Design the sequence.
C-alpha cells in the first residue's frame, strides 16, 4: 500500500453566501475580551501551573488529572491572545508557557502530544519561521509514533496497550506533520494505518463514534467497543464525536484520501442530526433524560471541526451548511448562559463544560480544552470574515 502525504496541507476554501447570525460579531468581541481578562488573571494567580477544570468556577491547580494532556491549551490561548491584541507581555507569556512543556516532546506516557505541541510550539513556529522551533514539533510527532501497535495497527491510548481512543484522532495530525516535514515513510504509514483502524473499528454505520476500542494483544484482532467517558459502551460520547469529525478532516488535509473526508462528514452529520436546533449537545446522546443538558467543550470542538469541513467539502451547498451551523454554535456559546462575560467570580471562559462525568471531575464547569477550542474556532471564523471585509 502507498501512504501518500501531500507536500502541503490542503487549504480551507470557505464557500460564499454564509448566514452570519446577527449576534455573532458582538458575541465574538465579548468572548475575546473575556478570554483576555480570564487568562491573564489565571497566569497571575497561578503562575506556571496548568489547571484542567474549575470547581465552582475556580481553577483547580491540585485537582485530579486522570492523565496529563492539557498543558498545551493555556499556552495556546496565550498565543492567540498575543497575536490578536499585540500585547508584548502576552507574547512573552506564550513563549514561557511553551518552554515549560518542551521536554514533553520525549514523553512516551501519553497519546496527547498533538494537543501539547500543536497548540503551542506549532503556533510559535508559524509566528517566526524558526526551523529550531519546528524541530520540536517534529520530535513530538516522532515520539507520538512510538505508541504504534504493529499487530493491531493503531496508536495505543495512555490507559493500556490494548486500548484505542477516538481522542487520538485529534493527535495523529502531528505524526502526519512529522512525516510531511521529514519524508519519513514509516511515520506516514503509522499515521495512515491508525486512521484506517479507527475508521473501521470506532466509527459506526450511522456516523456515531465509540470512545474506545479494545484489541487482542497477541493477535491484534479488534475485540469490542468500550467507553471511559460516555454513558455506555454503545453510547455516543459527544466530545469524542467532535474529535472524530475534526481529526478525520485533518487526516484528509494531509493525505487527500477521500475516505477520511467521508468519515469526517459522517461524524458531522450525526452531530447535526442528534443535536439540531439545540446546537450544544449533552455529554452523551444515548443517556436518557440527562441531568445536565449541555457539554459546551464538545460544541466548541464541533464548531471547529465543521468550519474545517466547510473549507474542504466540494459541494458548496453542503459546505455552506456546515459553516452556517458552526457559526450558529459559536454565536450560541457567546450568549450569557455560556460565556462568563461580566462575572468576575467565574475564572474560566466557557461555562457548562465537563471533563469526566463518571469520575465526577470538572462536571458542569469550565474546562481548559473547551476554552482553547472555543477561541480557536472563533479565530478561524474571525480571520475569514476579516478577509472578506478587506476584499470588499
Sequence:
Amino acid at each position: 500500500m502507498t501512504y501518500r502525504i501531500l507536500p502541503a496541507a490542503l487549504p480551507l476554501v470557505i464557500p460564499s453566501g454564509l448566514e452570519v447570525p446577527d449576534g455573532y460579531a458582538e458575541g465574538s468581541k465579548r468572548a475575546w475580551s473575556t478570554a483576555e481578562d480570564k487568562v491573564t488573571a489565571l497566569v497571575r494567580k497561578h503562575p506556571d501551573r496548568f489547571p484542567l477544570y474549575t470547581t465552582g468556577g475556580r481553577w483547580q491547580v491540585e485537582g485530579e488529572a486522570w492523565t496529563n494532556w492539557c498543558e498545551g491549551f493555556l499556552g495556546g490561548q496565550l498565543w492567540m491572545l498575543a497575536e490578536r491584541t499585540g500585547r508584548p507581555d502576552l507574547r512573552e507569556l506564550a513563549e514561557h508557557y511553551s518552554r515549560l512543556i518542551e521536554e514533553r516532546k520525549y514523553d512516551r506516557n501519553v497519546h496527547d502530544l498533538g494537543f501539547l505541541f500543536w497548540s503551542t510550539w506549532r503556533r510559535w513556529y508559524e509566528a517566526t519561521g524558526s526551523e529550531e522551533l519546528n524541530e520540536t514539533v517534529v520530535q513530538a510527532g516522532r515520539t507520538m509514533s512510538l505508541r504504534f501497535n504493529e499487530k493491531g495497527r493503531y496508536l495505543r491510548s495512555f490507559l493500556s496497550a490494548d486500548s484505542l481512543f477516538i481522542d487520538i484522532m485529534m493527535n495523529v495530525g502531528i505524526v502526519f506533520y512529522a512525516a510531511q516535514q521529514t519524508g519519513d515513510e514509516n511515520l506516514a504509514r503509522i499515521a495512515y494505518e491508525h486512521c484506517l483502524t479507527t475508521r473501521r473499528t470506532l466509527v459506526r454505520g450511522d456516523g456515531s463514534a465509540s470512545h474506545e476500542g479494545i484489541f487482542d494483544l497477541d493477535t491484534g484482532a479488534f475485540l469490542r467497543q468500550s467507553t471511559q467517558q460516555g454513558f455506555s459502551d454503545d453510547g455516543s460520547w459527544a466530545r469524542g464525536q467532535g474529535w472524530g469529525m475534526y481529526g478525520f478532516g485533518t487526516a484528509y488535509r494531509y493525505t487527500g484520501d477521500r475516505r477520511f473526508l467521508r468519515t469526517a462528514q459522517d461524524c458531522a452529520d450525526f452531530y447535526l442530526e442528534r443535536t439540531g436546533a439545540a446546537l450544544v449537545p449533552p455529554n452523551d446522546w444515548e443517556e436518557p433524560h440527562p441531568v445536565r443538558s449541555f457539554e459546551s467543550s464538545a460544541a466548541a470542538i464541533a464548531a471547529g471541526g465543521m468550519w474545517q469541513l466547510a473549507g474542504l467539502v466540494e459541494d458548496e451547498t453542503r459546505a455552506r451548511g456546515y459553516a452556517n451551523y458552526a457559526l450558529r454554535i459559536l454565536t450560541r456559546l457567546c450568549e450569557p448562559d455560556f460565556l462568563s462575560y461580566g462575572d468576575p467570580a467565574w475564572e474560566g471562559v466557557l461555562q457548562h463544560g465537563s471533563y469526566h462525568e463518571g469520575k465526577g471531575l470538572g462536571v458542569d464547569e469550565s474546562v481548559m480544552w473547551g476554552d482553547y477550542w472555543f477561541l480557536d474556532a472563533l479565530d478561524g471564523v474571525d480571520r475569514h470574515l476579516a478577509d472578506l471585509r478587506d476584499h470588499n
Observations:
- Residues 18 and 324 are 6 Å apart (CA to CA).
- The chain is about 50% helix and 5% strand.
- The mean pLDDT is 97.
- The radius of gyration is 19 Å.
